[in-house]
Design goal:
The complex is a heterotrimer of chains A (783), B (285) and C (193).
Chain A (H helix, E strand, L loop, with lengths): L7 E6 L11 H9 L4 E7 L5 H14 L3 E6 L2 H13 L8 E5 L1 H5 L5 H19 L8 E4 L4 E4 L3 H11 L5 E4 L14 E2 L4 E2 H14 L3 E4 L2 E9 L2 E8 L14 H5 L3 E3 L8 E3 L1 E2 L11 E2 L9 H5 L12 E7 L1 E4 L3 E3 L16 E3 H9 L13 E8 L15 H15 L4 E6 L9 H11 L2 E4 L4 E4 L5 E7 L4 E7 L1 E6 L1 E3 L3 H8 L26 E3 L9 H19 L3 E4 L4 E3 L9 H5 L5 E4 L2 E4 L10 H4 L5 E3 L4 H13 L7 E6 L2 H11 L8 E6 L7 H10 L3 E7 L6 H17 L7 E6 L4 H18 L4 H12 L2
Chain B lengths: L1 E5 L1 H4 L4 H13 L3 E4 L8 H5 L3 H17 L3 E4 L2 H16 L1 H12 L11 E3 H17 L8 E5 L21 H8 L3 E2 L18 H17 L4 E4 L2 H9 L1 H8 L7 E3 H8 L4 H4 L12
Parallel strand pairs in B: 1-2, 1-3, 3-4, 5-6, 5-7, 7-8
Helix pairs in contact in B: 2-12, 4-5, 4-6, 5-6, 7-8, 9-11
Chain C lengths: L14 H9 L14 H5 L10 H10 L2 H6 L11 H5 L6 H14 L8 H16 L4 H8 L2 H6 L1 H9 L14 H9 L10
Helix pairs in contact in C: 7-8
The chains are: A alpha/beta (783), B alpha/beta (285), C mainly alpha (193).
């Protein structure tokens, strides 16, 4: 298609005032109408609404538009909406371009004049780029329909059963020797007081017996390779030393074992042997040897009448191929020993609520002397809602867990005194407030005041000191059992697993979902879904809800048998390639190979980062949908459309960093309008020529922002930025005019201050002198 | 072990006997105390209630004096310790404040850089000298004494950078008591305020607070209370008969300052450690 | 607030008071107070006060400036810092108390004869004169004749044991101290009377 046939339609949205109240949308439209190839320019109150879409539709027909530019909210919101719309009217979805006039413009600065100029620049960039867009078609790739579920707690189990019952083969990878997780440790669940193991056991049995579920306990994920629809997981199995099929669970081995250590299932309230059954209802129901504490005396081998013990068991490696992964790794409890004012670890009668659940299961006794307690206190918010420790969040379940335990214990022990010391009593779920009401009727006492200290007094007793904030007095009361309710933290190893799977971690340490409201169980990796407490504190019911959600999401991904691959991949311009191999070396996913015909890109493995493009000395490799002409045109448009001074261009990596920029606007944090964002697949996609083009066309300062955890590693990022800086400096541009940084999504607030500080710096330096600009232009033309 | 000794205002008025027992005990344990020349009052609670800048400047002058002689500062009063810690933290966090402090100090030819450490005598004895060396010097085991360690309110809040004991479950006095052969008797109010700092402004409240300490220690089985703060000692000792009269209760618990206890164990007699000057007599072995 | 009989109305609430306190040392994180009560639970002198630390903060959050600055509660703090060590939001309560005291003095929220005011101002005055505290002089300045009379039993006990110091050694050149603090033009607080 020749240039003359470009027919661009520009549509600018008021967004109900979100844009229109700050940006003079009509003025922007009028400016856009003058841009090259623009055949029509319209405004609308809500382009995403059906009337807005109708407008676009009618203009496409009226003007024979063959590509569309939308100035509205972030493409992260509605790019798909507009692509679908245009696609249904004969316009290839990749011929749709969006300018971010809301999250990155109107929401970040209320200065109308400057916001309008900025919007014009952004639109100019979008229209410029649009002229070079090419129609692209995604390809379908067959998927592997197996699923791996990491974590065999209630969440992982429910997700597995749901998928297996739909016909998917599921691998459950569980680190412990038995599935069941923390739910197996609970005595009863709230608010119905169902026996926890009674409702869990049938699920455990079903999991074991299901023909489509392969259970791998004592196993962890060592490495993962591949992308959505096609993953390869390398698993490491720790030796059990016991043959699961031969073991009858008779227990003769444990009787002769000389070693005794703290029992993890009983959370330290009891001891077990080095050869042990995790718990009576364990699945698989077989003994296991704790190799860290086993003395290798092998007395157990002789004692076993079924020959089930194998001292020569070794670490095993296994590889599985799956199409999707569900992460359901659960939680651990904060160790309150560091809060010495609560005397945990210093007095036997101070326990955690998890330990209490075990004590209840064994008939409720106080650890100091085994007698039945008479007065029990619960201390809530131990390590939660505490910015000093670094856990500012609420752990959600402890209030209800304490109320449940108190109600339960009152049934078990006559005349028991039960006191719950709380900060705010949170009973938000279905039936929870009613249960709290029942607790009060039953005689559970509540004191509103965060406990200041738990101090041992004479004998077995401890004094709890707190302010009763409702009365405004200091209260001191003695108890013979004090239950601390510690904060919920992500399970050990979560951050390492996240790194392996390319998942993001939020500022609270838990795994981060793709979108908090609308994609609550999706991760940043298209084929990996998240469920349960690995995402944040929650109770059994919510963990099951998320389990079922992830099963559904997994089925959506794998159900059609194919997965659609984006066409935004690198490609080689073969007549320019001289097989130097630079691109092969730089590719982070080893997606380029050197064949006799030259370099070739394997589309499936290509992640579209663009690191290969600037390193090619012959400009023989480019990236679809982020081609050289497209990028240059966008730079020229954004840098050159208006005469705003100083003008700062921020090349922003398109996934995490761009999202962080959007979050700044979403949070309505303000920064100077001088900053204009240009999305790039990665800072690694940039060459010094792009910065020089920006400066020559009108920029006075350039920022490069890369997200954390992208395919551009730290070392390469630094080297790359330094190379660019050197070239830019050699053209006579002060090095202070170039800035590079990395950001994470949760740290978005830092970006606003980066923009502010950099703008101030450039204002102090003043605009780039016009001689410097024209000098670069001469050089740039020569390229 | 040499320190610039900062006696503090209590040591020259209501706690002179503790000043002397501190000096003697230190000498016996090999701690060399060189009194800080021309020291000024740290400002206590009062200066910070009226003039914030002065409340940093006053302790800074002493720290600058110590810096000039190249020694760390040794104090015996936890209140002073808290004041010095605060001044150092504030100057470290705010370079503008530190600069202002130095501008003022320069008129006296002094400079504050922040590198002088402040130490408490109890910390130096229990942690630097240590129980082993202390035991070597012990001539008299105080075995039949059940002593209740009383820390006063200040140590619970020492900032992390200057903490020398667990703020919630302090052990320093218990260790010292055990080293001299006596039995430490823990009681739940060991870190509550005795009322000393507010006795002059709110005697009724302070009396009630004092009473709680005395009762609590007595109920736990303490035969005497060991203090680490001179003001606490004065309060619990000198005002004890007044409290007994006010509430109609009898305690008769002698209050022994930690240097007095240690001094006895190291072979000094009652008179030398100033126990004969206690209002509530110390009649134990 | 024991014995509190009045209704707190809009007229008593001054939102600018909160903003002002927020800018003073100790006031930075006031807005994040969740009123959990761990400060008052830990306070070693709370028994004495009309308002415990949590309640003082509540007064500020509500903008009840008059109450906050005129209550003797802000003078009860002994700066032990037990509260701030445990505060989940890291609010520096003792620093806040000092700031409130200084504010109260600046605004004249206390009557001249207020005991707390007299105590601290006398302390400061003696310091500026001697360089060190003279407890005896402080007491005699503070206490009226009746009170001194009531203290005679204590005084006698102390005399008998040789523990009364009528004259305590002062600093050499104590005027250094006052010149030091007066030339400190950087100080923003008003000099005491």
């Amino acid at each position: 298609m020749s240039n003359a046939e470009r027919r661009i339609g520009v549509f600018i949205c008021h967004c109900g005032g979100n844009i229109g109240n700050t940006v003079d949308v009509e003025k922007v439209r009028d400016a856009a109408a003058q841009f090259r190839f623009v055949k029509c320019a319209e405004t609308n109150r809500y382009l995403c609404s059906s009337s807005g879409q109708d407008l676009i539709r009618s203009k496409i027909q009226e003007h024979g538009l063959e590509r569309v530019v939308i100035g509205s909210c972030s493409p992260r919101m509605h790019l798909k909406t507009f692509r679908d719309l245009c696609s249904s009217h004969g316009i290839n979805p990749y011929l749709v371009e969006m300018a971010n006039l809301r999250e990155q413009c109107s929401w970040t600065n209320l200065d109308k004049d400057n916001a309008t100029s900025k919007a014009i620049d952004l639109l100019a960039g979008a229209v410029g780029r649009a002229a070079y867009l090419e129609p692209l078609t995604p390809t379908d790739m067959k998927v592997n329909s197996n699923v791996a579920v990491i974590g065999g707690g209630v969440s992982g189990i429910c997700a597995s059963l749901e998928l297996a019952n739909q016909g998917y083969k599921v691998f459950i990878v569980e680190r412990q020797p038995s599935i069941g997780g923390h739910m197996a440790q609970l005595s009863k669940t709230y608010p119905t007081l169902d026996c926890s193991l009674c409702i869990l056991s049938p699920k455990l049995a079903e999991t074991k017996g299901h023909p489509l579920i392969e259970l791998m306990t004592n196993t962890e994920v060592a490495a993962i390779d591949g992308s959505a629809g096609s993953y390869s997981l390398s698993l490491t199995r720790r030796p059990r030393y016991v043959n699961e099929n031969k073991c009858t669970g008779c227990g003769e081995c444990a009787k002769v074992c000389p070693v005794e250590v703290a029992d993890e299932f009983e959370d330290g309230t009891k001891r077990r042997r080095a050869i042990y059954l995790p718990f009576p209802q364990a699945v698989p129901n077989a003994y296991v040897i704790d190799e860290n504490n086993c003395t290798k005396c092998w007395l157990c081998v002789k004692a076993c009448k079924h020959g089930a013990i194998n001292p020569r068991d070794q670490v095993g490696q296994k590889k599985i191929e799956v199409g999707a992964v569900i992460v359901a790794t659960g939680f651990r409890l904060f160790d309150p020993v560091v809060l010495t004012q609560y005397s945990f670890g210093a007095h036997p009668n101070v326990v955690t609520n998890l330990q209490l659940e075990r004590l209840i299961e064994h008939g409720i006794y106080r650890p100091s002397d085994g007698k039945t307690p008479k007065k029990i206190a619960w201390v809530l918010c131990v390590g939660s809602r505490d910015t000093q420790i670094g856990q500012p969040y609420c752990s959600k379940i402890c209030c209800m867990a304490a109320v449940k335990e108190a109600v339960l214990l009152r049934e078990l022990v006559p005349n028991l005194e039960t006191w719950i010391f709380y900060t705010d009593l949170r009973a938000a779920g279905k039936g929870y407030e009613e249960f709290y009401g029942r607790a009060k009727e039953d005689g559970v006492k509540f004191v509103r005041g965060r406990v200041a200290e738990v101090v041992p007094v004479t004998g077995d007793e401890l004094m709890v000191r707190a302010e009763d904030t409702l009365l405004g007095v200091q209260l001191e009361k003695n108890f013979d059992l004090v239950v601390l309710c510690p904060a919920i933290l992500p399970e050990v190893g979560t951050s390492e697993l996240a790194e392996r799977l390319g998942l993001h971690i939020g500022s609270d340490g838990f795994l981060l979902e793709r979108h908090y409201k609308l994609r609550p169980v999706d991760s940043q990796n298209d084929g990996v879904f998240l469920s349960g407490c690995c995402l944040g504190p929650k109770d059994v019911r919510e963990s099951v809800v998320e389990a079922l959600s992830t099963a559904s999401r997994t089925a959506s991904l794998l159900g059609k048998g194919v997965v659609t691959i984006s066409p935004e991949k690198a490609y080689v311009i073969s007549d320019r390639c001289d097989s130097c191999g630079e691109c092969v070396n730089i590719c982070p996913t080893r997606a380029i190979e050197l064949l006799p015909s030259g370099a070739t890109v394997k589309s499936i493995s290509c992640v579209g980062c663009g690191l290969c493009v600037p390193v090619c000395p012959r400009n023989a490799i480019d990236l679809k949908n982020s081609t050289e002409p497209q990028l240059m045109a966008e730079i020229e448009g954004v840098a050159g459309a208006t005469e705003t001074r100083p003008k700062i261009i921020a090349f922003t990596e398109g996934t995490s960093a761009y999202t962080a920029c959007d979050l700044v606007g979403l949070a309505r944090q303000q920064y100077p309008t001088n900053v204009r964002v240009i999305k790039v697949p990665s800072v690694g996609r940039l060459h010094a020529r792009h910065l020089l083009a920006a400066f020559s066309e009108g920029a006075d300062g350039v920022i490069m922002i890369e997200g954390e955890g992208t395919f551009l590693g730290e070392e390469r990022f630094r080297a790359h930025v330094n190379e660019i800086r050197k070239v830019v400096a050699s053209k006579g541009i002060e090095s202070l005019r170039v800035f590079a940084t990395r950001t994470t999504i949760p740290q978005f607030a830092k970006l606003a201050s980066v923009f502010q500080t950099f703008t101030e710096r450039i204002q102090k330096l003043g605009p780039l002198p016009s001689e410097a600009r024209s000098k670069i232009k001469q050089v740039a033309v020569a390229r | 072990m040499r320190f610039a000794y900062y006696p503090g205002c209590a040591s020259i008025s209501i706690a002179r006997e503790h000043d002397s027992s501190s000096r003697t005990v230190s000498k016996l344990l090999g701690i060399d105390l060189a009194e800080l020349e021309n020291w000024n009052c740290c400002g206590a609670d009062s200066v910070r209630s009226i003039d914030r800048f002065a409340s940093v400047l006053l302790p800074a002058r002493n720290l600058a004096l110590a810096e000039r002689v190249g020694l760390d500062l040794l104090v015996t009063c936890p209140g002073c310790y808290q004041v010095f810690s605060r001044a150092q933290q504030l100057c470290q966090a705010d370079s503008t404040l530190k600069a202002k402090v130095n501008t003022s100090l320069s008129s006296l030819g002094l400079a504050y850089s922040g590198k002088t450490r402040t130490r408490h005598l109890l910390d130096v004895i229990v942690n630097d000298v240590g129980p082993a060396k202390m035991s070597q010097g012990v001539k008299r085991q105080l075995t039949s004494i059940k002593a209740a360690p009383y820390y006063g309110c200040q140590p619970a809040g020492f900032p992390e950078s200057s903490r020398f004991d667990d703020p919630q479950r302090p052990q320093a006095l218990s260790k010292l008591i055990a080293t001299v052969g006596a039995r430490p008797v823990a009681f739940p109010n060991a870190t509550r305020c005795c009322g000393g700092p507010i006795f002059m402004t709110d005697p009724e409240a302070a009396s009630s607070m004092m009473r709680n300490i005395l009762r609590s220690a007595r109920d736990a089985g303490g035969q005497c209370i060991v203090t680490m703060c001179e003001l606490c000692h004065f309060n619990l000792d000198a005002r004890q008969p007044g409290i007994e009269k006010r509430y109609g209760e009898k305690y008769s618990i002698p209050i022994v300052h930690f240097t007095q206890l240690l001094g006895l164990a190291l072979g000094m007699d009652s008179k030398t450690v100033g126990l004969d000057r206690n209002i509530v007599p110390f009649n134990l072995s | 607030m024991s014995g509190q009989k009045e209704v707190i109305g809009t007229a008593m609430m001054d939102p600018t008071f909160f903003d002002e306190v927020k800018k003073t040392p100790g006031g930075e994180k006031l807005a994040s107070c969740i009123q959990c009560g761990i400060c008052s639970g830990s306070c070693t002198t709370s028994l004495a006060a009309e308002f415990n630390p949590r309640q003082v903060i509540e007064l500020i959050l509500l903008g009840l400036g008059n109450k906050a600055l005129s209550t003797p509660s802000i003078w009860t703090c002994v700066f032990c810092r037990a509260c701030t060590v445990r505060c989940p939001q890291g609010i520096d309560i003792p620093e806040l108390m000092s700031s409130l005291r200084i504010m109260a003095v600046k605004r004249g929220a206390l009557p001249r004869e207020d005991r707390n005011l007299k105590f601290h101002e006398s302390f400061w005055k003696i310091l500026r004169a001697n360089g060190r505290l003279d407890t005896f002089r402080l007491y005699t300045r503070l206490a009226g004749m009746q009170e001194i009379a009531r203290s005679i039993p204590l005084g006698l006990r102390l005399l008998r044991k040789g523990r009364v110091a009528f004259r305590t050694p002062t600093m050499v050149h104590p005027e250094q101290l006052s010149s030091l603090t007066e030339t400190a033009k950087a100080s923003e607080e008003v000099s005491p009377r």
